[in-house]
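For the sake of clarity, the format in which proteins appear in this thesis is described at this point. Each number in the token line that follows is a code from a learned vocabulary of backbone shapes. One such record is shown here in full, so that the layout can be seen directly:
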Amino acid sequence: MFRFITIMALALASGGPAFAKTPSYCRTSFGPNDPIQTRFMGLDFELIAFALAEKYCGAEPRSMQDRFLKRLERDGCRPGTEIYSDTEKAIAKLNASDLKRLAKDANAQSALSDHQVDAWAAETVAELGGCGRLIELHDSKT
């Protein structure tokens, strides 16, 4: 009898993993009791720093797609995944934005003067390490 119960328990337990959903590690959202993915948390800051290096600090324009989307692909996040789609949209928005639009998106105010935009950019660049550091990171091969 014990042998029969043990065999039945093993048979029932072995079917569970077949229906288990594999976790998606290429996402930015999470539900209740889902593990939080931390490896993409700094991506938004990297995108803003890259854009500020070009639009405020004068770095030579480079392709954000080549840098960020290719890195996601190397990490196994192919087109169609949540993080890839979110990053693609953010890059399109940053490429279409000027410095005033970046500042407006970062602030709740509807209208910003040129002086306010410049002050926002200077403060943000200083918080991120200064123009020298942003250009250095922008021009790195990573």
